[in-house]
Amino acid sequence: MFSKVKSIVLNGLDGNLVEIQTDIENGIPEFEIVGLPDASVREAKKRIEAAIKNSKMEFLNKKILINLAPANIRKEGSCLDLAMAIGILIANRYITNLDTNELVNTIFLGELSLDGKINRINGILPMCIEAKNLGIKTVILPNANVNEAAVISDLNIIPVNNLIEVKKYLNKEIEIYSYQSKEIIFSRNDNIDFAEVKGQENVKRALEIAAAGGHNCLMIGCPGAGKTMMAKRLVSILLDLTIEEAMEITKIHSISGELKNDGLMTNRPFRMPHHTIPISTIIGGGRIPKPGEISLAHLGILFLDELTEFSRNILESLREPIENKEVVINRLNGNYRFPCNFMFVASMNPCPCGYYGDEEKECKCSEQEIHRYMNKISGPLLDRIDIQVEVKRPELRKIKSKEKPETSMQIRERVNVARDIQLQRYKKYGIYSNSELTTKMISEFCNLDVQSEELLQNAFKKLKLSVRAYEKILKVSRTIADLEEKDNIEFKHVAEAIQYRSIDKFIK
Amino acid sequence: MRTLIEYSSSTYPERLRYITNPPTRLYVEGNIELLNEIGISIVGSRTNTQYGEKMCKIFTKNLVEYNINIISGLAVGIDSIAHKTCLKNSGKTIAVLPCGLNRIYPEINIGLAKQIVSNGGALVTEYDNDVKTDSLKFLERNRIVAGLGIGTLIIEAGERSGTSVTARYAKQYGKNVFCIPSSLENKKGITTNLLIKQGSNLVTNVDDILEFYPDIKFTKKQVEIKDIVLDVPQNLIDVYKVINDIPQDVNEIARKTGLPISEVNYKTMLLQLEDLIIELPGQRFTRNYEKE
Fold first, then answer.
1. Mean of the per-residue pLDDT values for chain A?
2. Nearest-CA residue of chain A relative to B285?
3. CA closest to B254 among chain A residues
4. Inter-CA distances, B202 with A152, A203, A365, B19, Å
5. Phi and psi dihedrals of A321, rounded to 5?
6. Is A431 or B290 the better-scoring residue by pLDDT?
7. Phi (first) and psi of residue A68, to 5 degrees
8. pLDDT at residue B26, as a whole number
9. Chain B residues near residue A498 by CB distance under 8 angstroms
10. For residue B260, what is the nearest residue in chain A, using CA coordinates?
11. pLDDT band at A400 (very low <50, low <70, confident <90, very high)
């Protein structure tokens, strides 16, 4: 009595096909799973036994052996429960009316509970993508996960609730209709909009430039100035997601179990980890690596509030991922790659007490303290931040004023235009935005006329800017020129770009 | 308003008639009455030191307080400082040009020339409207500068300078020459110190000058300081005017000027690079009074 069914396990972001081979023989009753199962797979024995019994079927007292092929890769998680239970039922000849041709093209995903119910699992989307790539036609999966899987077209998705239902379906006793994939609607979260931010035009402008060029951004300002509020609204002026991008971020969130029931993620992620976060949670890690905050922020925004409160370790560990847009986690049994192409946004106070430069409250810090505080942010990290802007507390009368600020939609229209220009310009170069320009490309795309060059030299001398600011200013002025749909960088673009070097002006 | 004054005219400045080689006619733009009022010529190097700048400002201001007009040559350096300080303290000033009124030299001071006229001062030249300047005309101009004043104050002058020529003319015409002493190490003080050695009057304050004119009754008045925007490039004036000594942040400036924030951003940066404003923490700006 032998059976073969198929399922998929996850390895990093990718799915791996697993064949579940079940052999049932007479002999001393025994239930064994081989093929590098980890604890959560081995525990499935008890769940399967109870689930089959509680589904009013007999769990035979025989010698049961399950092999998970290929036997040389580790399998973890509870997603194999259903497949193993079905394997046993088939080997037991419980499913008499089975179409073996169909079985070869079907995969089973789902976790069993003791009463036979099938529970939701994490990572359905990458598993289904893998199934589709392998040419699988039918996926039987938990009803709770159906929205997520429905994103993929050309796949026969069968949502099931319990073990009996699966048995009856395979026996052709009942028919379950394939879940139709829904049309994807990219709806914006309308709850947050820049129109709610009164005043702060300079910060809005800086964020608009940041969004248009994909520049990393640092906001410096006293408590209560509205840094976090504006950072949250940054998502609302970023580009619309494409289907491929939405799939990619849904995949990552699916693995991490961060998905709600909505299926495809249609908004760019905004991640705001607390400063006490351990390093493995922000970069990604664990014995079996899981994507960290930086990967969850993929194609969206990673916002670090109170940047100076984060431990130096964490800040330094962000350096490579920001540059490479991908993080590799090495483990004994393989390397795990997670994408992390995020926009880095951070906020901090200008000094330990928080009120340096505030008009109403007197700052109590000495110059030395301020200097030490600023120096908590290392040079190499600052190197990766193109735009620094100061945020001031808005005046009360401005908050109460009736003037209507621009809506996110209006800002987004300009951002979209600037992004399109960049996409066209960099088509052949494999980059998408001004922030990704390399030194060589800067000399090609960011040419200055004599007048602007002079201005920049003059600014460096007068404001004592550091050398590292040079390329940043060029990149940002390129974006400002793009926002105005100008082919060449002009004098005033450079002058405005120099304004966004607040920290350089602070630390001298 | 331009006026042509012939030598025979009754408005021709009296003091100018007594110099050895008086101009046959004068082209004047602005207030012609100034030509006969009491004025002191202030001259000095085009490449002044900080000391020279400071002294020029102090003496000019104090002279204006006694209602004395300032006469100078609209050149860069000490000349411009004298004109500007005079305007700032609501004084009247005469600029004597080495060129025609349509060809103001140096070009950088065209704005200053306009300010002089609009603030009740005058531009004076002996050349026809479209005459360009050349090296000879500078020296010729100096004799009018010396001739128009009741005396000449020399702030700073290097060796073999145009300023020493003006001093020579002034002596020749029998006018008092006042010199501000300089350190022996100051290269721009060589001529002033030399003139003192040769018998010019060393002055340490304005009273030293006034006591040479016992016939004239000087009364001190409280001068009113005018907000005159001089060195600011035309396109930046709108932003500059809004900024004053109370620090203001960019958003306030944007609201007051009605300009978009992107424009305010680049204009404040340019003003900063021109040293006209200072940035304070919190992206607030205030005028740089040290520059003025």
1. 88
2. A357
3. A201
4. 96, 58, 51, 24
5. -55, -35
6. A431
7. -105, 105
8. 93
9. 269
10. A201
11. low
Q: Give the mean model confidence (pLDDT) for residues A374-392.
A: 84
User: Residue B274: CA atoms inside 13 Å, Cβ hemisphere, count?
Assistant: 19
Cα separation of B102 and B124, whole Å?
12
Is the torsion defined by CA of B157, B162, B163, B164 positive or negative? positive
Residue A199 with chain B: CB contacts under 8 Å: 251
Q: Name the CATH code of domain B2-210 (choices 3.40.50.300, 3.90.1150.10, 3.40.50.450, 3.30.70.260).
A: 3.40.50.450
A407 touches chain B (CB under 8 A): no
Q: Which residue has the higher pLDDT, A54 or B107?
A: A54
In angstroms and rounded to an integer, the radius of gyration of the C-alpha atoms of chain A is: 28
Q: How far apart (Å, rounded) are the C-alpha atoms in residues A158 and A366?
A: 67
Q: Select from 3.40.50.300, 1.10.3370.10, 1.10.10.10, 3.40.50.970 the CATH code of B234-287.
A: 1.10.10.10
Residues on chain A touching B272 (C-beta within 8 angstroms): 462-463
Query: CA-to-CA distance for A296 and B34, rounded, in angstroms?
Result: 78
Confidence check: pLDDT of A432 > 90: no
The nearest CA of chain B is from the CA of A502 a distance in Å of 8
How far does the CA of residue B291 sit from the closest CA of chain A (Å)?
Answer: 14
Q: What is the dihedral of CA A216, A222, A228, A233, to 10 degrees?
A: -70
Can you list the residues of chain B whose pLDDT is less than 70?
227-231, 289-292
pLDDT at site B41: 95
Q: Minimum mean pLDDT among A2-16, A361-375, B98-112, B187-201: which range?
A: A361-375
Cβ atoms within 10 Å, residue B276: 23
Percent of chain A with pLDDT over 90: 40
Q: Smallest Cβ distance to B279: which of A202, A492, A505?
A: A505
| Nearest-CB residue to B261 (from A205, A392, A463) | A205
* pLDDT > 70: percent of chain A: 96
pLDDT tens digits, one per residue of B65-119: 999 999 999 998 899 999 989 988 889 999 999 999 999 988 888 888 988 998 8
Tens digit of each residue's pLDDT (9 = 90 or more) over A279-300: 999 999 888 888 999 999 999 9
User: Do the Cβ atoms of A357 and B284 come within 8 Å?
Assistant: yes
Q: Where are the alpha helices (DSSP H) in chain B?
A: 14-17, 50-65, 78-88, 110-118, 135-148, 162-172, 190-197, 206-210, 237-242, 250-257, 261-273
CB-closest option in B261, B275, B281 to A202? B261
CB contact under 8 A, B273 and A458: yes
Query: What would the two tokens of residue A234 be?
Result: 């940054």
The answer to whether A205 and B265 are in contact (CB under 8 A) is yes
CATH number of A2-170: 3.30.230.10
Pick the CATH number of A194-506 from 3.30.750.24, 1.10.1660.10, 3.40.50.300, 1.10.630.10: 3.40.50.300
Query: Is this complex scored with an ipTM above 0.85?
Result: no
Nearest CB among B261, B280, B281 relative to A201 is that of B261
Per-window interface: A 166-225 vs B, CB < 8 A: 199-202, 204-205
